[in-house]
Fold each of these.
Amino acid sequence: MVVRENFSLKKLNTFGIDAFAKYYVELDTLTGFQEILSDNAYKTEQKLILGGGSNILFTKDFNGVVLKNKLKGITVVDETADHYFIKAGAGEVWHEFVMHCVTNNYAGLENLSLIPGCVGASPMQNIGAYGVEIKDCFHELEALRIEDLTLHTFSNSDCKFGYRESVFKHEYKNQFIITSVTYRLNKRPVLNTSYGAIEKELEAMGVAAPSIQTISKAVCNIRSSKLPDPAQIGNAGSFFKNPEITADKHKLLKEKFPELVSYSLAGGNYKLAAGWLIEQCGWKGKTFGDAGVHKLQALVLVNYNNATGNEIYQLSQKVMDSVKEKFGVDLEREVNII
Ligand code: FAD
Ligand code: EPU
């Protein structure tokens, strides 16, 4: 176990922010985690668990220990007539894990292809895309409690998943290190092509009878066509959540803005496309030094080169203020701010 001091995190966050960690350590065993967490030299330091750094904005240096999770391994831990139970180490790269499942015909995660980051972060905000969220096939996870180094198992209901939400962002914030996640995947695929863009893409690909492999490919194609690749332009995907409003407020907004992009939710509320709201406020494609709003997806804030975390954060505040002023709608940041 090598603990580095004053370590640059620039290459370890997809925004490419040049923040420094007071201490930095990479861990590929559970005992490694237990060792550092019980070491008196670091006990009182703040801790930050880092996966792929694709949902974090550093607005300052991290004055504590950054623990880079490198726990690996993918195994079939159980099987029933209908399902495989696949357990993956938290440090596995999410897309590689999805490709492993797609290749082996373990169905359920194909719509979540090409999402950056690691398996361990997937339950943090119940990652979702193209009509699927991980909660749809999440079985359980194991996590180490930082306070007393005990291992705990969390079931699907324990995690209290919601839209970009889980118990780990609220009552258990900063208390657990997720060490592995087990997914319950289908032997007989239930294909989900309901998200309009998938059907169009499958048609363009000339696919008449979709499979989990062709759906995965279609999702990768769509994502690559509109989301910036962090290897080229720093970003953390959607910077804000799509806001939810009541039916009454939706009616008033729709009267004033007939083009409003919205989706009705079970229960009567509506979800608004934050990208549309931000675009209508004139932000799409705007740059301020090296910070900007992406030209193809207004929900994505970008670092073209050497923007600071604070510059991105200030820009996000201006975007939120203008959406509030024009539409009376509060945007909420999706990205974790450090
Ligand atoms: P990190 O950024 O490293 O960490 C995120 C948070 O989780 C931090 O608070 C961190 O401390 C905590 N954390 C990480 N690992 C652990 C662990 N093992 N135990 C405890 N806490 C942990 N998200 C979606 O939901 N849908 C999308 O479609 C999507 N598209 C994206 C597209 C792009 C181009 C980018 C850059 C991001 C996108 N994201 C999307 C956001 C991001 O990919 C996900 O949130 C992803 O799960 C983050 O994983 P990570 O390993 O990079 O987490
Ligand atoms: N739109 C605009 N202008 C824009 C962007 C979007 O008008 O600049 C409108 C369009 O009408 C479009 C609609 O918004 O049809 C929805 O856009 P898109 O399909 O790109 O999805 P999104 O709502 O912007 C969400 C997730 C993404 C996820 C996609 C696909 C959130 C916050 N974002 O984006 O997740 O990949 O759907 O399912 O829910 C992420 O979380 O980082 C992320 C990228």
Amino acid sequence: MEQPWWRSAVVCQIYPRSFCDTDGDGVGDLAGVRAHLDHLEWLGIDAIWLSPIFPSPMADFGYDVADYCDVDPLFGSLEEFDQLLEDCHGRGIRVVLDWVPNHSSDQHPWFVESRSALTSEKRDWYVWRDGRDGGPPNNWRSAFDPEAPAWTFDEATGQWYLHLFTPEQPDLEWANPDVRTAMHDTLRFWLDRGVDGFRMDVIHLLGKDADLADLPADQASGGVVGSNDHPSSHELIRGIRKVLEEYPGDRMSVGEVYLLSTAKVAAYYGNGDELHLAFNFPPLYAPGNAAAWRKRVDRVVEELASRDAWPTWVLSNHDNPRHRTRYGSEARARAAAVLLLTLRGAPFLYAGEELGLEDAVIPPERAVDPGGRDGCRAPIPWEPGNDHGWTAAEPWLPWPPEPDARNVTTLREDPASILHLYQRLLAARRASPALQLGSWDALLSPPGTLAYERADGGDRRRVLVNFTPDDHVVPLDGEWTVEVAADGTAEGEAWTGALDPDAAVVLRPSGP
Ligand code: GLC
């Protein structure tokens, strides 16, 4: 049976503000993405996911949407988006947009209308309530500031509105059928233009407790932890899935299900009628050691395989310190990349990780994000020299460390670079049904290491990862050849059994 494209795909997340500025405002734009499609095609990714490009006051850098059906002039125009889509499709690269359904911007015309009067026809498009004892309606706290209520009082109408994130991000009332219809139409707007799917922001938050009951005190802080995973989210997601299925060509949904339990995440695949894919963050937060990773991988195997749900793997994104920063060295980041690209499921890269970028150091006067996530959003350096392939305008955030060495041009010239490692890993994946779609079975290996086999019909690969600074010996039955090595050495040579500190290898059976 032919598999949908997203099962074998490697998706690269692009944070458009930070990819490349072409119009001289220090903020990346769609033309900057178009200008670097050669890089993405050479790297060998299958799809890009663009963080939000919609008109936005940028209180949360685009995750506060003021119009779901347009492009912010900061990034370009709808026409430029259409050109980008066409260019990507011409190169066999799919395009996934970031859809932010839980909340809009407070500047969205829907909210402006909603807050205008108690009797507004859009009053019940958002979550308005009377206060309790002179304070907010319940004890929910906002995600970015556990001290602050998830409610803001509106003087003019004397009620409070719910915002699980910043006050500039009022939550939409998904229990209202008019909201559902309007939001489904925003999907159709982009599906009609030909996009291949959506990354769905905090999708597990859509369903809310109708009574808005207080949460137990230990769960009240952080809308993303407490007031979530309401059973009604599942029905809402099934409705969204049906919209995608109105279209041909396997349009894909990948949900940000920010629940740090793989079992809970698994439920969001439904019975093949909810999300196609869901992010599973426990591995992202796993320390860089073999036992912790093995535990996370086992959970994925147990929880997802039982429902025929296809896993996802993420090491870095725009909300967390880059894994190069977390793991402390390039050697460890390289080994982690081998893991990411050879586990069973769909890997999501975060642009810049292929350069081994570390988070930027952000001086306090340049900090701009309400959630303190600026470091991992630093601009991508394309060249050595002053502007690194951007314009002369100072970029909106400082450069990451060593931009003269860690930039696309310089690393492309060095076959031993981490950039070339990513390219070889992606090529190896593409050439191997076992790596793309095959089974996953753990092999015995010394403590501090992980070893596993991927197999699909006659195609087999073995992967060994050393999480420690120690030498290990990993003997294997049969003859194996090094196909890809994290440090680039001994590729094409017979596997000797000696796994160096921080080493990671992909092996193929020796012989013809
Ligand atoms: C998601 C996004 C994050 C954003 C939040 C609110 O977690 O990844 O960047 O701030 O949702 O939309």
